[in-house]
Amino acid sequence: MKFEHLWDFNDLPATRQRLSERFEVVRATDQLEEAACILTQLARIDGLEGAFAVAEAKLAIACDLATNQSGEAAVRIALETGRLARDQGDVDRAERSFQLAARQARVSGLYTLALDALHMQAIAASPERAMQLADDAQSLIDCGDPGLRGWLGPILNNLGWTMFDAHRYEDALNCFRRDALLRAELGATVERQIADWNAGFVLRKAGRLEEAEATQAALESEVGESGTGIAFVFEERAELSAARGDWPAARRYAEKALVAHRGDGISNAEEPEKFARLAALQNDASD
What we know:
Elements: H1 12-28, H2 32-48, H3 52-65, H4 72-87, H5 91-107, H6 111-123, H7 127-143, H8 152-165, H9 169-186, H10 189-205, H11 209-223, H12 230-244, H13 247-263, H14 272-286
């Protein structure tokens, strides 16, 4: 069952409305397996909104409705149980739920859901475990529909940040560059730009300033002054300018970043550390 066309993560109320309407239709016609699946999606919305008790109650009802204890509804229940547990800080329960979802999905041939479960496990995994999960995902993609290749992007992204957090910068850079190549092949321009930005960020942290500068300069040229994500490019260019001791450029880019973030609706109250850092770059640049 596919629900992607009903989802809009930027408009959860509208998503809830569409899913609720579909739930009423299938519930009225005793399509219980699909009704259970839809409840898992409604529970996911509740979880995103922080209504964890409401979400858990919906999943309990979904369990009662599910007609096949190893079918799609069961997989989705395990997957959303894992997401809720993770969001509430219950790491062990989340891991158990994601493992169950991945195992059941693989057995049932539900490869998209199996990849979602592997992706969720990889978010907080150790570097070695994350690499194993990425290999598992690649195996699933190789034996499944070619359309599944898009799932490798989020997994490579998560693996890259796991490697970065472990200070394994070369491994992180390799993941982000692989991600960028994959997104380019898939025609996913914005996602490819994000992967390129990630690579540039790692290059700066690794002290490879010239390569980082070239990466961010290319993105600035491609994205444009008002393009999606340009505020983050301006941030990096401010940091790189400061690292080179080019304080006029650091100040200019810090100011651009602040203007762009505010234009995107981001305020100091929401991102105090980010705004403080940009203000510091401005102040340092004016000394």
